[in-house]
Specification:
By secondary structure, this protein is α+β, with helices and mostly antiparallel strands. Helix content is 52%, strand content 15%.
Length: 471
């Protein structure tokens, strides 16, 4: 255990280092450099930024140490350790290096708490730096650095691009470290989301809420059974899997999305039951029962519509609150496929027939559309046409387009289609891109919250320590 005099020595060392950097900056002020080219100006800016970043890191380290030594944080540490799932024992103060958002590493002395039990020589039982956890410092990174690394991993096209952007501003991290920080950041946020029951800051009380879900496509790297390659690598398959994406947003009296309410977006790789359980959690925290109108809109996937009534019942929504609607443009697409199956029709006849049926759908004449499809259900392609006819029959109750248009509610699921593209396709789907399941889950969560404009909420979840007390 380090003595109190050792801690004083550490404080004095910070004071000396801070003064050294201040002296360098003062020297640069008193002796301005003559610059005559863009290259010289860039070099000067870089030299100044290096010193100011160094100074910022030293100040951060100094403040972290002061916080760790404070009586208030010591009391919080004792409380956290007393509520830890496994009994912990103080192992004394140890020196830990922390990466700061400015790109430098600073040293602090912090108490390490280890699992109770017989200690092996040279090894520690799994434990925790309770003081760092309370300050939101995980993986030896300050919260600002961890958030920036994770944000870049979600924003950019790859982790290598995130590493390059960080390097250009003076934060040198290897690809493995970038990946570890971002993926663990997402894992902590997801864990906190599962155990924490706090409600959103916003409310949907008296508002018109639109809910939609759909699936995307990515390829997972799954281990293939059998011998390894000649180079000793394990073989794998690139199986296509469907991440499920959800969106919850609010529309105004004209049916346009309210910009004052950031949409709720999330995506997971698990099955339909999991995404509907997640949807139920979000809706409960938004206090959905206080909404004026609730619209479920999606394509005709049975995995969606088979579960919507169960979700409505579980949430306790009233029948007059809820509307179920099949996306109009998916229905129109089926009309086009029906017309295309009539090989004896010209292009002009097909277009005229499709336009007529679309108008009938918008006017609420679904029965007439079904009758029109039934009338042409003959000939060589009659079996295929019957499948489309059954599609309209099955979803007839979800085609009240005239009623919803009169209420100024949307009749298309463009929001979820766009969300799938922005969250999944533009980041996780591409030629020769294969994901491990855990990696894909992490990026899906990070990118969902980033695209929804709810990054600050994700930051709060990722830096909270409450979930650790439940594990």
């Amino acid at each position: 255990m380090t003595s109190d005099s050792g801690l004083t020595c550490q404080d004095t060392d910070y004071a000396r280092q801070i003064q050294d950097v201040l002296d360098e900056l003062e020297q640069m002020q008193q002796n301005p450099q003559l610059i005559t080219s863009p290259e010289e100006l860039e070099a000067l800016e870089r030299a100044i930024r290096q010193r100011t970043d160094h100074l910022g890191s030293l100040l951060v380290g100094h403040h972290i140490q002061q916080a760790l030594d404070s009586t208030d944080l010591q009391m919080e540490q004792d409380l956290l350790v007393s509520h830890w799932p496994k009994p912990l024992k103080s192992d004394g103060k140890v020196k830990v290096h922390i990466r700061t958002a400015q790109g430098y590493r600073v040293a602090v002395w912090v108490t390490y708490y280890r699992r109770k039990g017989r200690r092996r020589a040279g090894r520690r039982y799994a434990g925790v730096y309770a003081g760092l956890v309370l300050l939101g410092i995980y993986d030896r990174c300050t919260p600002a650095l961890a958030a920036e690394v994770s944000l870049l991993a979600a924003m950019l096209g790859s982790l290598d691009e995130a590493q390059d952007v960080l390097a250009n501003r003076g934060v040198e991290l290897d690809p493995k470290t970038v990946r570890l920080i971002a993926y663990r950041y997402a894992a902590r946020a997801r864990l906190e989301q599962q155990v924490e029951s706090t409600e959103f800051d916003e409310s949907v009380s008296g508002r018109r809420v639109v809910i939609s879900t759909d699936g995307g496509r990515i390829r997972l790297r799954e281990t293939k059974r059998g011998p390894k390659t000649k180079k000793g690598r394990r073989r794998y398959t690139g199986a296509w899997r469907e991440p499920k994406v959800l969106i919850i947003y609010v529309v105004d009296g004209e049916g346009k999305r309210e910009t004052s309410f950031a949409p709720v977006i999330d995506a997971i790789l698990k099955g339909p039951d999991a995404v509907f359980a997640l949807l139920r959690t979000y809706l409960q925290r938004l206090r959905i029962t206080q909404a004026d109108q609730v619209l479920f809109i999606a394509d005709g996937a049975p995995w969606i519509w088979n579960r919507v009534p169960l979700l409505v019942q579980a949430l306790g929504l009233a029948a007059d609150q809820v509307h179920e609607l099949l996306d109009f443009y998916h229905a129109a697409e089926h009309l086009g496929k029906v017309a295309a199956l009539r090989k004896d029709w010209s292009a002009k006849v097909r277009n005229r027939w499709c336009n007529q049926q679309r108008r009938l759908l918008l006017q609420g004449e679904v029965e007439r559309v079904i009758a029109a499809v039934r009338d042409i259900c003959r000939g060589r392609n009659s079996k295929a046409i019957r499948q489309h006819r059954d599609y309209f029959i099955k979803n007839q109750s979800r085609m009240a387009y005239a009623q919803l248009m009169a209420m100024k509610l949307p009749i298309g699921s463009g929001a979820i289609e766009s969300t799938v593209r922005r969250v999944v396709n533009l980041r996780l789907k591409g030629a020769s891109i294969f994901w491990c399941r855990a990696s894909a889950e992490a990026i899906l969560l990070l990118r969902s919250y980033y695209k929804a404009g709810r990054w600050n909420l994700l930051k709060r979840m990722a830096t909270s320590h409450l979930a650790l007390l439940e594990t």
